[in-house]
Amino acid sequence: MIRILSTARTEFRIALRNRWVAIAMVLMAVFSLVLALAGSAPTGGLGVDRLSVTVASLTSLSVYLIPLLALLMSFDAIAGETERGTLPLLLAYPIARWEILTGKLFAHLAILALAVLLGHGLAAAVTFWSDPTAVNGLSALWRLSWSSVLLGATFLGAGYALSALSRRPSGAAGLAIGLWLGLVVLYDLALLSAIVADNGGWFTTDAFPVALLANPADAFRLFNLTASGATAAAAGVGGAADAIPLWQSLASVLLWPLAALALAIAAFRKVTP
Predict the structure, then answer these.
(1) How many domains does the chain have?
(2) What secondary structure, in 3-state letters, does the chain show?
(3) What residues make up the domain containing 252?
(4) What average pLDDT is seen over the chain?
């Protein structure tokens, strides 16, 4: 455990110097503040408090920004060590490869948690300022916060795996952007196109819910929308939240980080310095 924490401290300091990480954290704070201000309009027609509506908007923001921030921190975790020539030295220490990845994960999760707390804290402060009764949505905001960290853990693990497979930061960066575009943007567009083509057939009734749960970003969105009771404020794929049991989306949110870390460890074991 000491070796893991030592690695985490080093990686935490390195991550704080990453300008892209700083930019992403600022964007998280700014967009959260804007969404909170936009969500201060009357929400009586939706039957939920203002903070819950803001949480629905923050969920969509997190789906895009949290995976991107995680991939920005993780794409060169292994490839960068290889290119700089520090990987042989790192592996020469009496520390297992899984401990190295776990230490990196702890450090990067701490950065993600700071970004989430900053953004969500600003959003909550603005919402409470405009509507003191919005305290009823605190449980939904807390749920969104910890599930956002789990979503980040999933994409951190995926980023480590891509970094180990690529061996070069430039290649890993390209793969990371491709993964983000595929899972966060193109995946939902493909599902919506399939639904239109299916016209209420087998895919819409049977395959579509499974396809949503198979994507960590969609599972995260469904879990938070269903649990917060703000599905009336959702649109598109998020509108399917009522059709999928809460426990299924929660199971997906909890299992994906473990699967991603296991994949990263398996890929790292095949790396030769």
Answers:
(1) 1
(2) CHHHHHHHHHHHHHHHCCHHHHHHHHHHHHHHHHHHHHCCCCCHHHCCCHHHHHHHHHHHHHHHHHHHHHHHHHCCCCHHHHHHCCHHHHHHCCCCHHHHHHHHHHHHHHHHHHHHHHHHHHHHHHHHHHCHHHHHHHHHHHHHHHHHHHHHHHHHHHHHHHHHHHCCHHHHHHHHHHHHHHHHHHHHHHHHHHHHHHCCCHHHHHHHHHHHHCCHHHHHHHHHHHHHCCHHHCCHHHHHHHHCCHHHHHHHHHHHHHHHHHHHHHHHHCCCC
(3) 2-269
(4) 84
